[in-house]
Every structure is written in structure tokens, then in C-alpha cells.
Amino acid sequence: MTISTRALGGDFPTPITDRYFEDYETGATYEYGHVTLTEDEIVEFARRFDPQPIHIDPDFAATGPFKGIIASGWHTGSIMMRLFADHFLSRVASLASPGVDELRWPAPVRPGDTLRLRVAVLEARASRSKPDRGIVRTRAELLNQDDQTVLHTLPANLLARRP
């Protein structure tokens, strides 16, 4: 799969290679995309990492509740992470993530779906214990071509403050 995505509207005023904690503003929302999945990509990922029949066997999947192959939720999460890392998460200030508070897959991803990422900064606050960094909490959603949410998550990231 070749990933070539871009900002879909307004983006940060600072490039990802010079983005620090101070550049993440509570209330800001950004969108990035697009990634279109083929059935072959869905099956290939699932064979390696989530080999359930609903993801790898077209005949079985046709008789299931989704009436066809659907992407693994972990594949969907991987696409979200790729877009998040390519566009939202600083390349110079990211210090890791303390975790994700929620992860949901409210709708399936099917072959031919075109996905985009919407990220909203819910909170950006200085660390109480380490003054050289801050915590950014976000709501990240993947949406398909019909504006249907196919993934919803609430990650947190630690980011260094500008030197």
C-alpha cells in the first residue's frame, strides 16, 4: 500500500518537524486523508495479524453479518495511526503515549472504502510533575467516504515544550 495523504483544510501553522507542545491548542480540529483500501490489502493484513474468517475468507464472510469481507479493527487502527503520525504528531517533540482511554469500531471498513482522519485537541496542559513537557489529549476518528465513523479513540500524548 502506498500512502500519500495531505491536510484537508486548515493545518498547524508550524510544520510537523518544528511542532512542540505549545503548538497544540485546545479546541483545534484537523482533518487528513485519504486512504482507500482494497480487498487484497484487507486480506493480506488479516492473514498476518488477525486471521479470522470474516477478514480472510470471502465465501465465509458473504454469509456473515456484514455480507462480505471487512477490515480487521486492528488494520483500521493502523491506518488511523499512520495518518496521525504522518500529519498530527510532532516529529521532534513526541515523547510517547501514556495510553488510550477508548477505542471503538462503530462501523465496518469494506474494500473500496476511502478513509480520512479527524483529530480534535480536547486538552493541552503542562505536566504537573515534569515542566519540560505537556500532555495533549485528543479525539481521533476515522471517517469513510459517507462521513460514517469507522473508528473512534481517545489517545493521550506526551510532548516536549519548545526549547
Explain this structure:
Residues 28-134 form the MaoC-like domain. This is MaoC family dehydratase. The chain has 163 residues and is an alpha+beta fold. The protein has one domain (6-160): Hotdog Thioesterase (Thiol Ester Dehydrase, Chain A), CATH 3.10.129. Helix content is 22%, strand content 35%. It is built from 4 helices and 6 strands. A 6-stranded antiparallel beta sheet has the order 1-2-4-5-6-3, with helices on one face. Strand 5 and strand 6 (149-160) form a beta hairpin. The protein is elongated, with a radius of gyration of 17 Å.
Strand content: 25-35%
Determine the fraction of residues in helical runs and give it as a percent range.
10-25%
What is the CATH architecture assignment?
Answer: Roll
Give the CATH superfamily. Answer: Hotdog Thioesterase
Q: Indicate the low-confidence ranges by residue numbers.
A: none
CATH class, please?
Answer: Alpha Beta
What is the terminal separation in angstroms?
A: 37 Å
Principal-axes shape call:
elongated
CATH domain fold name: Thiol Ester Dehydrase, Chain A
Short description:
With about 160 residues, the protein is of the alpha+beta class.
Layout of helices and strands, plus pairs?
Layout: E1 6-7, E2 29-36, H1 39-49, H2 53-56, H3 58-62, H4 73-88, E3 94-104, E4 114-126, E5 133-143, E6 149-160
Antiparallel strand pairs: 1-2, 2-4, 3-6, 4-5, 5-6
